[in-house]
Predict the structure of Follicle cell protein 3C-1.
Amino acid sequence: MLWPQALVLLCSTVFCVTQDFAPVPCTCGLFPTDYFDYSSRKQPVSKPGLSFVLDHPQAQPCSLDDLQCADKCIKEILVLLPNSTNNNVICRNIDRDCFKERGYFWIKNCRDVWAYTARYTLREFCCKNGVSYECPDDDSYESYSLYH
């Protein structure tokens, strides 16, 4: 009687393990400054402001190494960022207001774990009520208050 139960348990364990290690295609994420502990490089604590799976000719997971994945992500995000619609997507996705925060690039490649690329945007993001606005030159809190 123990044999079928052991087989079911083994199959369940194998299924869970293979499900956890399913290859992940090159995925790009742009996280605002305070979504992760910058000094420890621990995983971000929330969803990215902008995220997408790269649609490239070799769409097989694990066909790109991490550096290739990161380079392709950076190029794609730099094309998307100047568009104000995408900035509003970022502001809606982060679910909070932000003032002069940079976006940090992370990737998932092969594994379902975010990896920090040590790259970030020079441009700063300002969001109020899910809408992007141009950050003021003066970074004092008073000027932030005047704009809203």
Notes: The radius of gyration is 20 Å. The mean pLDDT is 75. Helices lie at 2-20, 66-80, 84-94, 141-146. The chain is about 35% helix and 30% strand.
